[in-house]
Amino acid sequence: MKKALSIATSDSGAGAGIQADLKAFLRCGVYGTTALVATTAQNTVGVKDIFAFPPEVAVRQIEAVAEDIGADAVKTGMLFNAGIISAVAETVARLDLPNLVVDPVMVAESGAKLLEDDAVESYRRELFPVARVITPNANEAFALLGAEPDEERIEEVAIELHSLGPENVVVTGGHTDSGADLLYDGRKFTRIEGPVHAGGNAHGSGCTHSSALASFLALGLPVEEAARRAREVAAEAVQYGLGEVGAGPGPVHALGRVLEEAGIYQEVSG
Ligand SMILES: Nc1ncnc2c1ncn2[C@@H]1O[C@H](COP(=O)(O)OP(=O)(O)O)[C@@H](O)[C@H]1O
Ligand SMILES: Cc1ncc(COP(=O)(O)OP(=O)(O)O)c(N)n1
């Protein structure tokens, strides 16, 4: 079985973060491992507290996973501060871990800040240059460049992010009018279209998308095909989003369709 490592933060409500990553890995048929860098006290309504671990905690977990289990792909999620980002970048490069997908999580859907201001520079200088793919959403893409959001300029922004060193940029479009993701590989743009599901139960869609993308890279797909399949998995998880969980926007359900096709969806979800 191929393996994917998530380096990310816990969401106690389990809609996003490392919990969403493990569900997406399972959905995509890879064995998921984790390196926890921080934890949030979070539910569907909001983020109440964030507790970051010392960077060494991330380093030791990544080393433990790499020396025994190994990783065919790695994804990073919420890394919260500059010290953690630097330590993760150094460790992934030192251990020569392949297929790094960097999801530069900055703000939760509820509006909470999930990245310290001075950490943006660490993403730009240290983690992006070693990434196979970075997956900012449209707002993050502009914020990473200190620019105001403007959908008309999305291609320029992708080019500018690519110039920071990642091999590929996927700007996810869950909050745009078209709902399409945009892939830029340094030569050409590919729009990745698909169904847009209304309903608003999309908490964790970004985490699910980047984990699915890492999974498909671990399975050996080329980047464009992996990005198409990742959008399908994320959109499907939104389609089956669980409105009945919590009072805020419900968590995505990465396994909804799989359970339905197995005939056990109603039995499981009540
Ligand atoms: N309502 C939706 N319908 C279909 N796909 C969606 C929807 N919302 C998000 N997605 C998909 O989920 C993935 C993550 O999207 P996005 O919302 O941009 O990220 P984030 O959760 O980081 O803000 C993308 O592939 C996007 O196209
Ligand atoms: C612990 C943690 N990590 C990441 C996020 C953001 O996740 P995302 O998939 O971008 O989903 P939304 O929260 O924006 O719906 C988070 N909230 N918590």
UniProtKB/TrEMBL annotation:
GO terms for biological process: thiamine biosynthetic process; thiamine diphosphate biosynthetic process. One of its GO terms (molecular function) is hydroxymethylpyrimidine kinase activity. It is an enzyme of class 2 (transferase). InterPro entries: HMP/HMP-P_kinase_dom, PM/HMP-P_kinase-1, Ribokinase-like. Residues 11-253 form the Pyridoxamine kinase/Phosphomethylpyrimidine kinase domain. Keywords: ATP-binding, Kinase, Nucleotide-binding, Thiamine biosynthesis, Transferase. Pfam families: Phos_pyr_kin. It catalyses: 4-amino-5-hydroxymethyl-2-methylpyrimidine + ATP = 4-amino-2-methyl-5-(phosphooxymethyl)pyrimidine + ADP + H(+); 4-amino-2-methyl-5-(phosphooxymethyl)pyrimidine + ATP = 4-amino-2-methyl-5-(diphosphooxymethyl)pyrimidine + ADP. Coiled coil: none annotated. SUPFAM superfamilies: Ribokinase-like (SSF53613). One of its GO terms (cellular component) is cytosol. Its EC number is 2.7.1.49, 2.7.4.7. Pathway: Cofactor biosynthesis; thiamine diphosphate biosynthesis; 4-amino-2-methyl-5-diphosphomethylpyrimidine from 5-amino-1-(5-phospho-D-ribosyl)imidazole: step 3/3. Catalyzes the phosphorylation of hydroxymethylpyrimidine phosphate (HMP-P) to HMP-PP, and of HMP to HMP-P. NCBIfam families: HMP-P_kinase. This is Phosphomethylpyrimidine kinase. It comes from Rubrobacter radiotolerans. The lineage of its organism: Bacteria, Bacillati, Actinomycetota, Rubrobacteria, Rubrobacterales.
